[in-house]
Amino acid sequence: MVFKEKRVFALIFLASSVFCEVFFEENFNDPSWRKRWITTSQRYYNGKPFGNFNWTASTYDANDKSIMTTDDNSHYAISTTIRKFSNRGKSLVIQFTVKFQTRNTADYDAKYCAAAFLKLFSPDHDPKKLNGDSPYLIRFGPDTCPTANRIQADIFYKNKMWIHAPRDYDKKIYVYTPMPFIPDDSHTHLYQLVFHPNLTYEKRVDGKLIVEESGHMEHGWQTHPPRRLRKDQPKPSENEWDEREYILDPEDKKPADWDAHQYVPDPYAKRPDDWKDDVDGEWEHPIIRNPKYKEEWKPRAIKNPKYKGLWQAEEYDNPDYKEDPDLYVIPEVGAVGFENWQETSGVVYDNVMITDDLEYATSVALPIQKKAYEAEYKVFAEKCEQERIRKVAERKKIEKDHKRLNTIAAASNPSRHDEL
Ligand SMILES: *[C@@H]1O[C@H](CO)[C@@H](O)[C@H](O)[C@H]1NC(C)=O
Ligand SMILES: *[C@@H]1O[C@H](CO)[C@@H](O)[C@H](O)[C@H]1NC(C)=O
């Protein structure tokens, strides 16, 4: 028995390692990336030029290279054709790292605006023609601007683009809230988007699940009407259905000595002996705050024994709803690329991987992200420390100059100093 279980376990283990498939991987470490990745041959889109990418070394290792955008107020379009694949029957994991290198993180950077989307294209994609109008299958990545600040994940489904907008979350998107899920710094972070055959999806940053932006795909993209609807029933009266969780205790009685008068006549005041009504007007007894005053009496609250919870109309299956078990399937991917508009350049892309195995993808990219982040943070912290030392020195100098000027002023005008 035990032996059998072990065998089963070993088989499953084998199966999962055999079937893990990497559809595409790019770490830009080898100069040959320039042969694979093609920049658009278009010069302008929407009246703005296309910018250039530089091949740059990471902070922690000169051999770990990335590509970086270099021109402000520019479009970027670079893509590569890949071996055709579909994720039918498998999970789809899309991951890459982004570093918003030029973001000023000492302060909220109100002018910073850059999108960093990775896009998946169908096999008929032409890299030379890539621009903002080119159709894509998935667009995924952080977009950090004063007006939009979120991790986009948009899909092409049934001939339509669907913007990721989780049903219970749609009031919060497209408004500026300080860096909700995009880390608020200028360091390297890992972004992952995962679709599963059970129609759930995950968004992850640095390996951590973003719970608010994960769940069922139907909710995430609102591709389907709700599965269940509620009957149009009149709400029952309070007698039939009591929704009050607490009520005032009918047994509770007001104590006899409860004094609810906020003001009372001053017991020590009396009409002065020499008061004359015709001269002084009618004498009024002064009032004072009542020392025994208690707020208005209310019976205590108790649990309502008739409480039935919040009433809801009965549910029924929505006849217009039809599950699509293929909602997670991207039928055919043939190219991958970055296509973005950036007001602020200096965005670094790296560690692109598309696979069917989240665990494997994470085990490759997360250690790199951690190393990069730590090295970048160290440089950043040193810069902050230098800045602090500079500011202290500057203040000291101002204080010294001030003192010197005061001494000169006092020496040249001693009498005035005495007057002060
Ligand atoms: C991009 O690379 C070129 C050539 O190596 C270099 O001259 C230029 O300064 C780089 N630009 C940025 C923004 O790093
Ligand atoms: C869906 O599938 C994924 C991957 O197998 C799994 O991690 C997740 O728990 C599943 N979710 C549900 C709701 O079944």
From TrEMBL:
<dbReference type="InterPro" id="IPR001580">
    <property type="entry name" value="Calret/calnex"/>
</dbReference>
<dbReference type="InterPro" id="IPR009033">
    <property type="entry name" value="Calreticulin/calnexin_P_dom_sf"/>
</dbReference>
<dbReference type="GO" id="GO:0030246">
    <property type="term" value="F:carbohydrate binding"/>
</dbReference>
<keyword id="KW-0732">Signal</keyword>
<dbReference type="GO" id="GO:0005509">
    <property type="term" value="F:calcium ion binding"/>
</dbReference>
<dbReference type="GO" id="GO:0036503">
    <property type="term" value="P:ERAD pathway"/>
</dbReference>
<dbReference type="GO" id="GO:0005789">
    <property type="term" value="C:endoplasmic reticulum membrane"/>
</dbReference>
<keyword id="KW-0256">Endoplasmic reticulum</keyword>
<keyword id="KW-0862">Zinc</keyword>
<keyword id="KW-0430">Lectin</keyword>
<comment type="similarity">
    <text>Belongs to the calreticulin family.</text>
</comment>
<feature type="region of interest" description="Disordered">
    <location>
        <begin position="219"/>
        <end position="242"/>
    </location>
</feature>
<keyword id="KW-0677">Repeat</keyword>
<dbReference type="InterPro" id="IPR013320">
    <property type="entry name" value="ConA-like_dom_sf"/>
</dbReference>
<protein>
    <recommendedName>
        <fullName>Calreticulin</fullName>
    </recommendedName>
</protein>
<keyword id="KW-1015">Disulfide bond</keyword>
<dbReference type="GO" id="GO:0051082">
    <property type="term" value="F:unfolded protein binding"/>
</dbReference>
<dbReference type="Pfam" id="PF00262">
    <property type="entry name" value="Calreticulin"/>
</dbReference>
<keyword id="KW-0143">Chaperone</keyword>
<feature type="signal peptide">
    <location>
        <begin position="1"/>
        <end position="20"/>
    </location>
</feature>
<keyword id="KW-0479">Metal-binding</keyword>
<keyword id="KW-0106">Calcium</keyword>
<feature type="disulfide bond">
    <location>
        <begin position="113"/>
        <end position="145"/>
    </location>
</feature>
<dbReference type="GO" id="GO:0006457">
    <property type="term" value="P:protein folding"/>
</dbReference>
<feature type="compositionally biased region" description="Basic and acidic residues">
    <location>
        <begin position="231"/>
        <end position="242"/>
    </location>
</feature>
<dbReference type="GO" id="GO:0005788">
    <property type="term" value="C:endoplasmic reticulum lumen"/>
</dbReference>
